[in-house]
Design brief:
The complex is a heterodimer.
Chain A lengths: L2 E2 L16 E6 L2 E6 L4 H7 L23 E6 L2 E2 L4 E2 L10 E3 L5 H16 L15 H9 L17 E2 L4 E3 L9 H10 L4 E4 L6 E4 L11 H6 L5 E3 L12 E6 L8 E7 L2 E7 L12 H5 L14 E3 L6 E3 L2 H18 L2 E4 L6 H14 L14 H11 L11 H6 L2 E5 L3 H4 L1 H14 L2 E6 L4 H7 E4 L2 E4 L1 E5 L5 H6 L3 H8 L4 E5 L8 H12 L2 E5 L5 H7 L5 E2 L3 E2 L3 H11 L14 H10 L4 E4 L10 H10 L2 E6 L11 E4 L8 E4 L5 E4 L11 H11 L9 H11 L24 E7 L13 H4 L7 E3 L1 H7 L7 E4 L5 E4 L1 E3 L6 E5 L1 E2 L2 E2 H4 L7 E6 L33 H4 L32
Parallel strand pairs in A: 2-7, 18-28, 19-20, 19-24, 20-23, 24-25, 28-29, 29-30, 33-38, 34-37
Antiparallel strand pairs in A: 1-3, 2-3, 4-5, 4-6, 4-7, 8-9, 9-12, 10-11, 13-14, 14-15, 16-17, 16-30, 21-22, 26-27, 31-32, 33-41, 35-36, 35-41, 39-40
Chain B lengths: L4 H12 L24 E3 L14 H5 L5 E7 L11 E9 L8 H5 L5 E3 L14 E3 H4 L20 H6 L1 H7 L12 H5 L1
Antiparallel strand pairs in B: 1-4, 2-3, 3-5
Bound molecules: iron/sulfur cluster (4 copies) and FE2/S2 (inorganic) cluster.
The site of one iron/sulfur cluster has 13 residues of chain A, from helix 3.
Amino acid sequence: MTVASASGNDTAEPRPVPEGHVRLTIDGIEVDAPQGELVIRTAERLGIVIPRFCDHPLLDPAGACRQCLVEVEVNGKPMPKPAASCTLAVSDGMVVRTQRTSRVADKAQQGVMELLLINHPLDCPICDKGGECPLQNQALKHGRADSRFVDQKRTFAKPVSISSQILLDRERCVLCQRCTRFSKQIAGDPFIELLERGALQQIGTGEEQPFQSYFSGNTIQICPVGALTSAAYRFRSRPFDLVSTPGVCEHCSSGCSQRTDWRRGKVMRRLAGEDPEVNEEWNCDKGRFAFRYATAADRFTTPMVRDSESGRLRKSSWTEALRVAAEGLLDARDSGGVGVLPGGRLTREDAYAYGKFARMALRTNDVDHRARPHSPEELDFLGAAVVGTGPERGAVTYADLEAAPTVLCVAFEPEEESPIVFLRLRKAARNGGTRVFHLGQWYSPGVEKTTDVMGAGGPVHSGELLRCLPGEEAVALSELPEEVERGLSEPGAVLVVGERGARIPGLYSAAMRAAERTGARLAWIPRRAGERGAVDAGTLPTLLPGGRPVTDPVVRADLERQWGAEEGTIPGRPGRDLDGILAAAESGELSGLLVGGVDPEDLSDPARADRALRAVDFLVSLELRPTGVTEHADVVLPVAPTVEKSGTFLNWEGRPREFEITIEGTGAVPDCRVLDTLAVEMDVDLFTQTPAAVAGEIERLGPNPGVRPQPPDVSAQAPPRPGPGRALLATWRHLLDNGSLQDEEPHLAGTARPPVARLSAETARQLGVSAPQPVVITTDGGGELTLDSEVVDMPDGVVWVPGNSGESRINRKLGLGHGAVVDIAASSAPPRGGVTDPEDAAGAEVPAGTSEREIPLTAVHERYRTNGHAGHGGPNGNGRADNDGGSRQADGGGA
Amino acid sequence: MGMTDPLKGFGVTLSKMFKTVLTEEYPEVKKIPAPRFHGKHQLNRHPDGLEKCVGCELCAWACPADAIFVEGGTNTEEERYSPGERYGFDYQINYLRCIGCGLCIEACPTRALTMTNEYETADDDRRNLIYTKEDLLAPLLPGMEQPPHGMRLGEDEQDYYVNGPELARRQGVPENTTVETGDEEAVR
Ligand code: SF4
Ligand code: SF4
Ligand code: SF4
Ligand code: SF4
Ligand code: FES
């Protein structure tokens, strides 16, 4: 940007206007702006703030609120009326006068503000937005000092619940359409809409269609007034009473930056942070609302040790617990060995401590953080293509996704598994003409919203679903349709593989081959926030920190030296993976287990995990809250939740997302500190007392000095063809499911997608099922699952079920995964009515006293009341010690 | 110092002996303060006994001495303490801090918080001077019932706010007084 002061040196040569720019004057300041820029943006760059409500830099301009009026002169001719600066593009020679220099603009703005306030209630004292409200602020700055409105204000029955989480107070709405534009343009869930006209105009949901969106919380954040609130935060605290700490979301590998607002040691709400390179200004509802697990009543506060007499866990001191744990682990190490299962939700620093603890204190490579279905092929793939990569070392980034001409998603459902990647793909498809292909089974909402996008100029068909059988992905990847093959060969094209690839033999090998064949860049997107960091931190049986292969003696010796360990401490043979560790524990080969944040329900065979946990002689659990591990643990050591510690997550790009401690002084300690102290009890020094110390050590170690491990080479197999009465199982997890980090959030749970089994029309016909009649899925192993059915367009002989939603806990119930053959039949049970009733969902607490909340909007007219609403104060006459005089006067413009 | 000065002094003493005495015979005789005296706070009730406080914390925010602590709770149909969505779940005033300025009662949007004429807030134990909700809530007058209970006087909270005086009348509160200012309270 170049700013030439009008009072500049007249004798100097006039500067040439840079290419693609125009020169205009705003409030007497001459400025060059790129063609097509909006006047409001240009003014912003000059530090001139024009008041606005509807304008948002990431949404298409709407010109809905008219608050941003300015006086404009084009080609020396003044425009007849003040113009909205948020829809007006700059042009050469334009002269703009804002409220700072033009009485006309100022008066116009005051007029608009007065009109807005006529329809605005005097809710400020009880409004969640009060104190951070653009309407309050701009009314004070650009509004009239007093009001001329003396009539009664309109009121609506309030609040209306748009979903179990989002509530709407219609009279507060200034009809700026930010929320509707967000849902349409960004999230692609056009469920909230402007209804009615004139004074009755309001935001509402279409009848019978709940606002079911994974991104609904963003509408609350961008609403310039307090019209949209969340059931979880409504009336809980006031913005000026909160401490805001920047942080990083601990849920998925998108790595959103966020703002945590807290007080009195408790998180009150979370908002999306701003990071243009990652999440822009958005986040998903899981990141926004799922945080109360950390304050659940069952959280561990003290260590526990199993009492040898009663056989029950009893509270103990840290000293005792650490001593018992150290002795037990030493015994177990010396008898059969100890396996380490850190889980995929750790920070990079905590994961590093687990890896180092395994090698140094337990002298084993039996460590695997992949608490989910996994495969040896995946292990090779991670070593060959993932570990040590990052944006500064040329890995695929969000920006690359946005700029890619073609993106192909394989074994990856962006909306469910990495919501911010989904938003980027949508943005790319909508603005940049990126073609998005999905290799999957059915036209899921996420596929639909990235392949058929409503662009600014009309619908855009931006991609295709490439249908294949579950398990056939690897084969399909080597025989891609001509169009996709060509698309992937264009420079910048990206091939995305999800962590579900581990269930499909040969997929990672096929993906690497396809990337080589076409020149497309490869990205691996896991589901959990800690997975990517743990790969680099060295919690895999084949990889030491930084991707050093355990089999390389030179690298190993070098690491031993840096760690100050004796030669030969780190075993040279690759360890067992998670399945191998559990099998060895079950058979008694391993005598001990050290388990971090692992929930047996997530593992491919929870029943086997239970048996292994029971069989093992000594079990130490580092946990936040009780899980299936706790009941078998000999020692339980409490660890800090993400808000009470600092650390770094690596997101799927490999980008470090550092965060500081949010709530201090709770006494909770991070895993790395617990492991450090435990190691000291075992006479080993890890030097992992604090996350900062670990980060320093990771920095010092640097990347793998040796060679990268070989890529996998597993041949793809065509899936079996199931006979009649049988089907291939397809599955992935919903974003909002039974995960324990979403506990204690009934309102959020109410917006989860209901679990249903999906089949093709032909399969349903063969089974004699008419949706939503339930189907029963059984396995040879005795597993059984009954779910309501839904017919979708998918290959015949396939049934899709959600991985871990409601009843549909397929690991536990079926013990089988994606691509397996199951028996399927019509069930005689009556349909359950798939739609989760938000009010039923886990006993959701619903603001009471609002009986009108369920009324359909068509009935709203009758509810439209103007029966006055006297300043919300109790008009109970005069109290003795109370001056009810002018201070709370009902006054139309007082807001 | 002149010769007559001691005499002048005695003169003053003598003249005072015939004037009215200013000494208060407290605590034997309690003084009645002025009607708008800022005394101990009171959390008021609606005529059916439901609490007026909605737990909005504005009083806590207005307080320059940081004497008030409020935490709101959510009403349910089964357990209702106030009309509307929220009620004051935890309410404390620390009289070691309170300077009696009355800003809190000005801030209260529901007139839940007012001040009584009660001024005997002194003690030798800190704990006794942190008044909790039980200490501050107005006593149940005739016609009132201890919450939790449903909204007896209207369909929703608007009925309570908009028709407040009228509701009080119906419950037998005399004209020109409110639930908080009726005779019953003056006796307290
Ligand atoms: S101006 Fe409206 S939206 Fe803003 S704080 Fe006041 S009542 Fe809430
Ligand atoms: S609800 Fe908020 S964001 Fe939506 S139109 Fe109304 S004021 Fe704008
Ligand atoms: S009277 Fe003043 S000091 Fe006392 S609690 Fe109220 S606001 Fe605080
Ligand atoms: S007493 Fe009044 S100001 Fe204080 S929390 Fe209750 S309603 Fe709000
Ligand atoms: S901000 Fe320009 S019309 Fe709303």
